[in-house]
Amino acid sequence: MKMTLLATSLLLASVAFAAPKAQWVTVDSNILGKLAPMQKALMVEKEAGGVSLVQLTEAELEKLSHAIHHELHRCGGYIAHETEAEALLALEPRGDMHYGMKGIFADYAIDQEELVVPMVAEVKAANIEATIRALSAFHNRYYKAQTGTDSQNFLLDTWSKLAAGRSDVKVELVKHANWPQPSVVMTIEGSDSPEEILVIGGHADSIAGGWFGNDKSRAPGADDNASGMATITETIRIAMEAGFKPKRTVQFMGYAAEEVGLLGSKDIANGYKTRSTNVVGVVQFDMTLRKGTVDKDIVMMTDFTNAAQNEFLGRLIDEYVKVPWGYSKCGYGCSDHASWTNAGFPASMPFESTMGDINKAIHTDKDTIESAGGNANHAAKFAKLAVAYMVELAN
Ligand code: BES
Ligand code: ZN
After folding, report:
1. How many CB atoms lie under 10 A from the CB of residue 379?
2. Ligand 1 pocket, 219 CB below 6 A?
3. What is the predicted pLDDT for the residue at 93?
4. Are the CB atoms for 281 and 103 separated by under 8 Å?
5. 287-314 pLDDT, tens digit each
6. Residue 85 burial (CB < 10 Å; 0-12/13-18/19+)?
7. How far is Cα 298 from Cα 310, in angstroms, rounded to an integer?
8. pLDDT at residue 92, rounded to an integer
9. Low-confidence residues of the chain, pLDDT below 70?
10. Distance 335 CA to ligand 1 centre (A)
11. 358 lines ligand 1 (CB under 6 A)
């Protein structure tokens, strides 16, 4: 009897003092069985299409991230959701979204050689390297740090200078309600079909010092993702110097707060969905600096992306970049392309290496140009692809 009372009161105490299971998390089902130390916390509530839904406390979520990084030697593999409804949506079978969304959203003919070839020839690795060094010089670009806002003002300033004298181009900060770092958006208004938009984007923030990061840690984020922003900046420079006037509207985006859950891009993409904006194509540049050891220079991620557009990008590489390319997958919504896919738009993510060969320095103070090869030659291939994509799809 005494034992039972004791057990009951212990049970009550543990219920009373247990941290609330505040976090709804979807996890790649494959990795669940490999996380023995977390077996107890990882009670699967629902499973669909290789994705499992679990409910965790903040502390368990931190432990999960740690376990994935240190026992499985990979990043992510799960998504933390703000609400149960959002988590359930991630489990819903929408085509084969987790393994490549289908649907054809545009005419993918390649017929702009006369414009594209001379513009591609203008790509200069030295320019890309200079922008990476400038962005990496901010102590960090963390979404809650003052330096994370300063770096966005630097990008605003850099893009505005490149667009000087063009009345059809505007560059602006997009503010977000729940954190201080803004996103940066540049718009070249289309001459024929301005309501049809293509988006060339990447995340401008950086992070280091644990899963949630902090505003003190040094986070140069050269590969992740000054490289993508510098790739886009070189694309803008070439478009402006060539006096490029697209038929469709082209938008370049530097998203805020990607590293803490794709927040900036989610805000923007969901806004476009709400307003029924006609986005005909999205490309995400996140990590273009470090060439993997595998003999594929550009790797198209197949999950949370659009298969037809991925194939189009492959043909653009063959035609204009002339480097070997292939496919790989993140296994989870690893970057801002997932925000666009989740909002129903066709998105792609050309990546620097296969997933099995990722840069281990990201999210640390070691993510520098030096640790990723010492120059921006690899990133230059992505700028050529961005130029080709912009011209071929906009016209
Ligand atoms: N650039 C990474 C994503 C990435 C890393 C892709 C390695 C492929 C290989 C991105 O900035 C990132 O860190 N994403 C998070 C997930 C996100 C939902 C917070 C990650 O991968 O842990
Ligand atoms: Zn990252």
Report:
1. 31
2. no
3. 52
4. no
5. 999 999 888 999 999 999 999 999 999 9
6. exposed
7. 11
8. 63
9. 1-19, 49, 71-77, 92-102
10. 6
11. yes
Written as six digits, the tokens of 9 are 């009161």
Q: How far apart are alpha carbons 35 and 52 in whole angstroms?
A: 14
Top mutation candidate among 23, 66, 75, 262 for ligand 1, by most atoms within 8 Å of CB? 75
Counting ligand 1 atoms within 8 A of each CB, the residue from 224, 259, 299, 334 with the most, and so the one to mutate, is: 334
User: What pTM value is reported for the model?
Assistant: 0.80
What is the predicted pLDDT for the residue at 102?
63
Report how far residue 38's alpha carbon sits from residue 61's, in angstroms, rounded to the nearest whole number: 10
Q: What is the pLDDT of residue 211?
A: 84
pLDDT at 388 (0 to 100): 98
Residue 73 has a pLDDT of 58
The response to whether residue 307 sits with its C-beta less than 6 Å from ligand 1 reads no
Q: What is the 110 CA–ligand 1 centroid distance (Å)?
A: 31
Residue 225, preceding peptide bond in cis (omega within 30° of 0)? yes
Which ligand has the minimum distance to the alpha carbon of residue 342? 1
Token pair for 378: 């690899």
Residue type, 265: S
CA of 19 to the centre of ligand 1 (A): 28
Q: Pick from 289, 288, 287, 270: which is nearest to 279 by CA? A: 270
Whether residue 352 contacts residue 294, with contact meaning beta carbons closer than 8 Å, is answered with no
Residue type, 315: R
Establish whether residue 352 lines the binding site of ligand 1, counting it when its CB lies within 6 angstroms of any ligand atom.
Answer: no
Residue 384's identity, in one-letter code, is: K
Q: Is the Cβ–Cβ distance between 379 and 289 less than 8 Å?
A: yes
Tokens of 170: 């505007």
- Report the first-to-last Cα separation within the chain, whole angstroms: 81
